[in-house]
Amino acid sequence: MSYSDALSKTLEDLGAAEGSVLSVSKDGRTYRGTLMPHHEFSSPDVIILKMKSGYNAGIRITGSAVITVEGKPAARERAETAVEYRKGLPKLVLIGTGGTIASYVDYRTGAVHPALSTSDMVNAVPEIRDIANIDAKVLFSIFSENMNVENWQKLAEAVAEEINAGADGIIIPHGTDTMGYTAAALSFMLGDVPKPVILVGAQRSSDRPSSDASSNLMACARFCTSGKRSGVFVVMHDTLGDDSFAVHAGTRVRKMHTSRRDAFRSINSLPAARMDASGNIDFILPGKPVSGGKAVARTGMERSCVLLQYYPGMDPSVFESIFMNSKGIVIAGSGLGHVNENMIPLIKRASDRGAVVIMTSQCLSGRTNLNVYNTGRDILAAGAVTVWDMLPETAYVKLMWALANSSSPEEAKKIMKTPLAGEMSDRRTEND
Ligand code: GLU
């Protein structure tokens, strides 16, 4: 929601912008402060002023209110403090993509900055300098709901480039909403990457006292420098406190809560490792050690793929065009991987014309099995395949990659059924 037309005009006529210092007199009281960005949940006739005390005041601008502009928005200083290179320390490269971890409210200007610079990040976590030399660059400044396949491809290329130029580890600050998708995409695109590539986010922005941005970032740097593990990971809080961090495999991780700091969980797998705030690492799963090899980015992705959630009453006529036009279809089915009997002929027609149809489960936890019920057997006979305990979104990302890196649907199916980056358990108990 934005300001009402009348209030927008008043502010415009006064020359007031976000970051202007305003004084508002209303009902015998005067409020003075910096004009903050209009919040989407605020009423259209309310302005928010950041007062000297640090508190925000919401003031409804009615006919009697008198607004005076007392100061212009301060230009944000972006002085880059030179960071001294320290011999003997590993080199980590931060590749910024945006999200909460890279945003903060600048209280002098009132603006929300989705910005990241070397000094911003390193100054926020000065201890990081004790363990590594840090280079930082901004690749994107976007919220992760706006990430797309092209962003994943550019990111994989940037990661490979930095590793091949000598980075000992890569840290990718990222919005948390779709961090799991990006982690899965990098896991397949970067294959046997020889160094740690770690995505990290924050549930609370760095201007808030409860922010998890610095502690997550520090945990990443510690895992990069002392973990000696290669691969794509997500590092986030493991608990609500600031004393435990989980290192998740990039193909197994999911945001399971909208706001908690410990929102990220490994599904159908334990985390690869846990760490405490001092950097002590408890390795839980075996993994590949770092090596001096080259990073190769295989970024091909077939765009004509969809991810669908089954629901009771799903009507095949609604999905006709999707099934007839997509090269890859991942369905998060019910239970062991089911859809209703009306959808099965559509699956058959799609498979018959060469589409790859993958059944996963919206239960998330546990393995799909199409051999238990008649429904499952009919879905198998229609040509769909299962990928055991792979997350639906990981299957979606992998299917795009498998189709682009194969020359036939059969070959793509084979890739889907071969564990490449820890994305599924290879205990094959089903005969499918
Ligand atoms: N929705 C935004 C994103 O995923 C902000 C949330 C966050 O970073 O945690 O980028």
- Classify the oligomer: single chain
Spatial ordering of strands, largest sheet: 9-6-10-11-12-13-16-17
CATH topology of the largest domain: Rossmann fold
Whole-number radius of gyration? 25 Å
* Count of domains: 3
Would you kindly provide a written description of the structure presented here, covering whatever features stand out?
By secondary structure, the chain is an alpha/beta fold. Helices cover 26% and strands 24% of the residues. The protein has helices at 5-14, 118-124, 128-131, 149-164, 179-190, 213-226, 316-325, 344-352, 374-381, 392-404, 409-416; strands at residues 21-26, 29-35, 46-50, 56-60, 66-71, 91-96, 104-106, 111-113, 133-138, 169-173, 196-200, 231-237, 244-249, 253-255, 264-266, 273-276, 281-283, 305-309, 328-333, 356-361, 385-386. Strands 9-6-10-11-12-13-16-17 form an eight-stranded mixed beta sheet, sandwiched between helices. Helix 4 packs across helix 5, helix 7 runs parallel beside helix 8 (344-352) and helix 10 packs across helix 11 (409-416). 43% of the residues are buried. The structure holds glutamic acid (GLU). Glutamic acid is lined by residues 99-100, 143-145, 175-177, 201, 203. Glutamic acid (GLU) binds next to loops.
